[in-house]
Amino acid sequence: MLEKLLITGAAGALGKMIRPRLQKIAKSLRVSDLHEFALNGDHEELMIGDLVDTEFMNRLLQDCDGVVHLGGISIEQPFEPILQANVIGIHNLYQAAKKAGQPRILFASSNHAIGYHSVSERLDALSPIMPDGFYGVSKVFGEAMASMYFNKEGQETAIVRIGSCFPEPKDHRMLSTWFSPDDFISLIEMVFKVETLGCPIIYGASNNDEGWWDNSKTESLGWRPKDNAEEFRAKLDATIPKPAPDDIATLNQGGSFAAAPLMTK
Ligand code: NAI
Ligand code: 15L
């Protein structure tokens, strides 16, 4: 059991979803975001600040024995804000982790690091990166930072390329990319329990019949997702239009992120 698990981006969608479910992993949570937000109880300790602020980051990591790094820009944006939160921010995280004695990190990467692969491909941890925008590029940068800190400094990180983590799949693409909250929780449990983690790339997706991602390279870690987006197919078919088969968003794994024009000024 961890003493103090840090959750960055704790006020965001995933932070809110996982925080009430981490009692099995950590005695207390240090929860952080840019602005004030409501705590779930005395076991949560609030620290407000910006990932870009190095002094804040050094204080944030102090005394933590695990980190779930969710903080940052989570959708496509122009390069400048992404540079701040996701590039400079992740550098600050790793520098602060080094000073804090290298707590194990779960880095919330994204399927948009590989979003330009065709939906006809099945990818694994060794597939080439193909980011589908500045956001995806920043996640590739974060993955590279994790890998470098592991090889040079021994800092362990689970690089989790999250698909679509929502209570239910919202569209037909998510029949392939859906990551149920239960499966995310079981992955977090594994990451902080397994004796030796290293720096694996793990696709954060449920056991979807139509999944595109193969986690066999990290099978030995013992994580097995249980949910399957297929159970929502009938509901999706009945409630939303089927996507056009020749749309760029349908043809590429990154969906609408791959189809969107680049956000340059
Ligand atoms: P979110 O946007 O709801 O939460 C991110 C949080 O980070 C926000 O509360 C925001 O205030 C905070 N943040 C942004 N810039 C910051 C800064 N400079 N300093 C401190 N905090 C900052 O995103 P969500 O959906 O909760 O995702 C969490 C993480 O998981 C993100 O890193 C995202 O890229 C990643 N992810 C999420 C997926 C999903 O399905 N929800 C899919 C793939 C990746
Ligand atoms: C992401 O990386 C985003 O953070 C999330 O909001 C979803 O859009 C997800 O990918 C997705 O691809 O469904």
Give a quick precis of the structure.
This protein is an alpha/beta fold and 265 residues long. The chain is built from nine helices and seven strands; from the N terminus they run βαββαβαβαβααβααα.
Shape: globular
* Strand residue percentage: 15-25%
Number of helix segments?
Answer: 9
Identify the CATH architecture. Answer: 3-Layer(aba) Sandwich
Low-confidence residue ranges: none
What is the H/E string? EHEEHEHEHEHHEHHH
Question: Care to count the β-strands?
Answer: 7
CATH class: Alpha Beta
How helix-rich are the residues, as a percent range? 25-40%
Main sheet record:
7 strands, parallel
Mean pLDDT: 97
Task: Give the N-to-C terminal Cα separation.
Answer: 47 Å
The domain count comes to 1
Annotated CATH topology: Rossmann fold
Classified in CATH, the superfamily is NAD(P)-binding Rossmann-like Domain
- The Cα radius of gyration reads 18 Å
Order the strands across the largest sheet as they lie in space. Answer: 3-2-1-4-5-6-7
Distinct ligands, ions and cofactors found in the model: 1,4-dihydronicotinamide adenine dinucleotide, D-galactaro-1,5-lactone
Described by its quaternary structure, the protein is: single chain
User: Helix- and strand-based class?
Assistant: alpha/beta
InterPro entries: Epimerase_deHydtase, NAD(P)-bd_dom_sf
GO molecular function: oxidoreductase activity
Pfam families: Epimerase
Keywords: NAD, Oxidoreductase
